[in-house]
Amino acid sequence: MNRNRLIAAAFAAALMPAAVAAQSVRVAHIDPFSGAFANVGALNGMHVEYGAALVNQSGGVLGGRQLEVIRFDNNANPQDAVVVLQEAIDQGIRIITQATNSGIALAVQEAIVRHNRRNPDDPVLYLNYGSADPSLTRDHCDYYSFRFEVHSGMKQLAIVDAIAANPEIDSVYIIGQDYSHGHEVSRYTRAYLAERRPDIEVVGDEFHPVGRVRDFTPYIARIQASGADAVITGNFGTDLSLLIRAANEGGLTSTIYTQYASTFGAPTAIGPDGIGRVIDTAHWTPDVWLTHNTEAGRQLVEDFERTYNAEIGSYQILVQMQMLGAAINAAGSDNPTQIAAALSGATFDAVTGPVMMRESDHQLLHPLFVSVFTDEGITNDSEGTGIGWRTLREIPASELSDDSTCQVSVPG
Amino acid sequence: MEYLAFALVNGLLYGMLLFMLASGLTLIFSMMGVLNFAHGSFYMLGAYFAYQIGAMGSFWVALFVAPVLVGVIGMAVERYGLRVVHKHGHVAELLFTFGLAYLIEEVVLMVWGRQPMPYRVPEALNFPLFTLGEVSFSAYRGFMFLIALAIFVVLIVILRKTRLGMLVQAALSHPDVLWSLGHDVPRLFMLVFGGGVALAGLAGVIGGNFLITEPGMAHHVGTILFVIVVIGGLGSLAGAFIASVGIGILQTLMVAYDLRLADVLVPGLAESGYRGPFQEITTMTLANLGPVMPYLLLVVLMALRPRGLLGKRDH
């Protein structure tokens, strides 16, 4: 008797969240929430949560239902990510969002594609807000997978455009980490330079071991000797900071074009060494909303800062959550197939400008900003360093190079 | 020629920085028989303390205060931790320092977080000292070099010329005799441990702003340190010096010379654009082999001469 009552109580307790959940549309956010990359997960978590709150504040979805974010910890590991993905699916969640590391993104996407092939009547939607490996929408594009930030290749095209527009640049030196990302950056750079400015000479193209170089001076010496006007790198983390530090110390005068100098922690690590020397391309910097001077942008930045005592870093996550909310409402259903149909080709007015979800490969086109790291002429600095990003060049979504080579196949 | 000189100077500098870490580690090992897994963590603590003191006061205060703080923590660890664990044998001590390394890392994460710290080279030393070819050598590098050299000289003088040094040397080989002569050997152990980690702390102070002060820094130096003390011969200061400088120069030179493996094996092979079986290996650059070299040296040396370059004991 006693035991039965206990089981009944446990049963009721287990059912309770399910009953609440029936009211809300659940989104599983898979990210590293513990371990070495917990800070990245925590930061992304704020953005996902805040994005959901934006949707809920403006009336929720499907006539007042709420978007509910449930977190799953992937320990920054592809195997763990696939395990918790299955757990989320078992709990009945059909909308998954995940990014950070492209290795994990590829594993999650593959698992979701497999699930959808086996369960065509019960598919799962995958929203990727940042994993930048081009192959995710290039070689592996999929009807149920959407990417809300441009991939590293598209970003590189914007960088090459900025270089091509500068007549003072006659030669470039490409240096990158020796793995797929560094090689993709080099490949895209060479291909587009040949197209846009064939007169620019690539005087160096080399790869260094990932995360192993402590002193970049020998590399800097080689760049000096090559006489390159500009340095192009896809480096991030310490590989980027140490490279810039060595450049400053060695008296290198070339401008360094980067992809990751404005991401979390990088402005602090680079510091004054990067002033006037680093030109970064990103979807967001602390001053971006000012150039558009939108009231909505100001409110967003201030409210986010008030809520989390942190700067907006991954604005694309907010865009993703708002576009998801709009797509659910447009579809009139929380069925992944219908949401996917509504998302494909959807447009949205972001505070950085209009964005569009490309129909062919489900890659979002959004504005990019080429900006210089400086302490002059900025309003908001990065990470309290006193140094920020001044926009040099804005590339609206409509002017992003169309590199789509993949075509998703519509199910059924 | 200038290029070679520059690479040699930078390699020597990196080697000297490594020696500041390796000297303490090898002294502690030869005296107490403990391979201190947390040595890199004390290096990290030195850098974080220096950043914190520098943010409140100045770098020059930090230069003296931070290593002392790290040394005091080291002595406390020896007195209240290692000495207690000591009676349970070397494995227990090893495990203790292993746990300590993680403990320090977690504490650093809790206090300072995972972001790199804005710990900078002092303005007074942030100018080019001289320019070789087109590359300049910063004053801070010169300063690091002087500090490392001074530490090396002071260490030799202390060990060779002072009474304390003689006691330490005696304790290396015959601790029992020293004990029975009425010397306080445990106190000596405490001093050596504290001194050794203070040196690591000092390396952190001058290396933390030169490189980057972040929670991964302990791990980065940790493995290479063990390689150095093992190659040099466990317990041998001179061996540690040769190994540090050798590895420092070797790694810098391998990066400095943009050669492909194929050109070294068969001259002209990579130039000819060889494509075929094993092309991944023939197109590999020496720079990418750089990080492997210390470990390769370690493995080869262990097979040929297990006690290391100048080690005295075979284990």
Automatic annotation (TrEMBL), chain A:
Q: A GO term (biological process) for this protein? A: amino acid transport
On the tree of life, the source organism's domain of life is: Bacteria
Question: Which InterPro entries does this one have?
Answer: BCAA_transport, Leu-bd, Peripla_BP_I
User: What Pfam families does this protein's entry cite?
Assistant: Peripla_BP_6 (PF13458)
Domain (Leucine-binding protein): give its ranges.
24-371
Q: Which UniProt keywords apply?
A: Amino-acid transport, Signal, Transport
Segment forming the signal sequence: 1-21
Q: Which family does it belong to?
A: Belongs to the leucine-binding protein family.
PANTHER family, per database record: LEUCINE-SPECIFIC-BINDING PROTEIN
Know the name of this protein? Branched-chain amino acid ABC transporter substrate-binding protein
What organism is this sequence from?
Pararhodobacter aggregans
From TrEMBL, chain B:
InterPro entries associated with the record:
ABC_transp_permease, BCAA_transport_permease
Pfam families the record matches: BPD_transp_2
Hey, what's the signal peptide range on this chain?
none
Any Gene Ontology CC annotation: plasma membrane
Where is it mainly found? membrane
One GO biological process this protein is involved in is: amino acid transport
- Residues passing through the membrane, by range: 12-37, 49-73, 94-113, 139-159, 188-212, 224-250, 281-304
Q: Write the record's keywords in alphabetical order, separated by commas.
A: Amino-acid transport, Cell membrane, Membrane, Transmembrane, Transmembrane helix, Transport
Membrane topology annotation: Multi-pass membrane protein
Protein name as it appears in the record = Branched-chain amino acid ABC transporter permease
| Gene source species | Pararhodobacter aggregans
